[in-house]
Design goal:
three-stranded mixed β-sheet, eight-stranded parallel β-sheet, globular, 28% helix, alpha/beta, 12 helices
Length: 335
């Protein structure tokens, strides 16, 4: 008892929540029901669907509204004339866009691995899975929750919300309606809504107590507030402003972990402002790892993922995103 009582309280830290980034996307094509189910089976606390809308206003899970790289749409001659060029958040993009397809039309497509060179094993699952709706994802979560007898959270991201609002397809109504239908209504429910933009989070906060996460990066700023940078938002004053409408920030790993190792000041600063810190995204492949965790000679092209996870967890973050929930969970349990 004496030895335990002499330990500093600062060494006691809860294991961060584990958020499956687009499902178990290191092992199955991202944003498919197969990827989400695998992530749940591997012990993820939350699964993360990125949400875009169809022409008929249905929320579906894709990393981008441009789907040329994540589906077989290019192989469908009936949709050849849908290929176009658009400016999304100031960036010109060419391809096929979900808002130009009805849900019934999207149902004829099949998902593909987005990173075939880094994840060749996932290519064998190409053309097997449909684009899931947000409702199907929530149904899966409820079913797996009953099967596993544990709570499983959902962590949707609104993709390009100001753009979709500008074309008459806002996220807010369909998102909150669908969450409400499945019992997600308050800050005590296992759900976070995240966005790189600001306006849609503030609009949701005005009508809901569901927990919100302001995503940030090391460069740039929110597309709907061109006069603001993410660097501005991470100052003491900026964090206090974020805390007025959000419950957490979601920074990229370099914002919390120094290149040489060790924590930056951001986690402590955010906690002082009353904000949790949910960091993204931890991947196993050498090309995604800081240099000190790379293993150039590894046959699978993977690095010291366990060491990387432990280093990020040691910064004091409250949650972390990973494409590899099984391996991340194992590393967290060791830590």
């Amino acid at each position: 008892f004496l030895l335990i009582s002499l330990l500093p309280l600062s060494v006691v830290q809860a294991e961060p929540l584990l958020i499956a980034h687009r499902g178990a996307s290191g092992e199955r094509p991202e944003h498919t029901l197969a990827a989400y189910e695998r992530a749940i089976d591997q012990g993820a606390d939350f699964i993360e669907p990125d949400l875009v809308l169809t022409k008929d206003g249905v929320l579906v899970a894709r990393h981008e509204n441009e789907i040329g790289g994540t589906t077989d749409v290019a192989d469908h001659p009936e949709f050849a004339d849908r290929k176009t060029t658009k400016v999304i958040d100031g960036v010109e993009m060419a391809g096929w866009f979900t808002e130009d397809f009805t849900l019934a039309e999207l149902r004829t497509l099949r998902a593909r691995e987005r990173l075939p060179e880094q994840r060749p094993a996932n290519v064998r699952y190409d053309h097997l899975y449909q684009i899931p709706t947000f409702e199907e994802i929530l149904q899966l979560v409820k079913a797996k929750q009953a099967e596993a007898e544990r709570q499983i959270g959902v962590y949707p991201e609104t993709k390009h919300p100001s753009y979709f609002a500008s074309i008459g397809l806002p996220h807010q109504g369909p998102l909150l309606d669908m969450l409400g239908k499945y019992g997600y209504q308050t800050e005590s429910d296992p759900v976070f809504i995240q966005s790189f933009e600001v306006g849609n989070l503030k609009a949701i906060r005005a009508v809901s107590r569901i927990r919100l996460v302001q995503l940030v990066d090391g460069e740039g700023g929110p597309a709907d507030e061109p006069g603001t940078t993410y660097a501005d938002m991470l100052t003491l004053r900026g964090l206090s402003l974020v805390a007025a409408y959000a419950d957490a920030i979601g920074p990229s790993v370099p914002l919390v972990l120094k290149p040489e190792g060790g924590a930056t000041a951001l986690v402590g600063r955010a906690h002082d402002a009353g904000l949790q810190v949910h960091v993204w995204t931890l991947r196993m492949e050498n090309g995604f790892l800081p240099e000190q965790y790379q293993r150039p000679g590894d046959m699978e092209g993977r690095g010291d993922f366990d060491g990387y996870v432990r280093a990020v967890a040691a910064t004091g973050v409250d949650a972390l995103f990973s494409d590899f929930p099984r391996q991340a969970r194992a590393a967290l349990r060791q830590w």
